[in-house]
Fold:
Amino acid sequence: MTAITNLNKQWGIKNQLTFDTTHSGQVIAHINNNHASASIALQGAHLMEWTPTGERPVIWLSPDATQAPGKSIRGGVPICWPWFGAHKTQANFPAHGFARTMPWQVINTTRFSSEETQITLQLDSSNIETKFWPQPTSVECQITIGKTLTITLTTFNKGQSAMTISEALHTYLSVSDVRNIRINGLNGCRYLDKVDGMLARQQVGDITFANEVDRIYIDTEADCAIHDPGLLRRIHIRKTGSESTVVWNPWIEKSTQMGDMGRDGYLNMVCVESANAANHLIAIPAGGKHQLSVSYHLETI
Structure:
């Protein structure tokens, strides 16, 4: 019995959830229910698509995204864990941690009476090189697909001492034209401006885009929304267990250097990331856990 056959036999859900492989060998979970369609790469527990029925895609995936073993995928929802950004002391460790390029295991799938579909994936420290993360740990990503998309990231400290993590759900959201959208909900919040040497600033009004934006909004658990007149919709974002929100668009100069953003791809995406980053490190006691959860839903305007 092949691995894919076994996955479909053990975890597939008739008429809702199936598994297959790409030409590069990546294992993908495909979800189609009455509310939405979605695809999730088991490498990185990486959501690549969420499209509510009758709507345009909400999650942006670069047309030039690489899907290969050990390579991060441009777009979707990369999981930054157990650190956000560069490692504090080891410059040669992977940026944003190792979780997004490692294979995760399916540990549960569920069809709800509401016709929503849920898949839970796990990354355990037994599969992690100790040089990167010596502490006994596991992390689970639970993704629920319906009219609302919900992603919950839970970190379990299985060790005998406390540990500290930073993290983010690095969500790329699809927009008609980033120059014409605005993000509300963060007015008055303080942020660290990564484009300008991490200077501390305060948001005044809605966030708009006319150049590169790379900001860590701190001390905020606020909901926010992307107002997109081109697609006649708002994307509402609600989070818990997160005290930072990262807003990012690389703009043309940086995106052309990346090689996997696609032609003018920066115009059709914006990252609004639910995070614990910068000064918001999460201390998890021995035997404890921490949960970061975010949900997305659409409103027609």
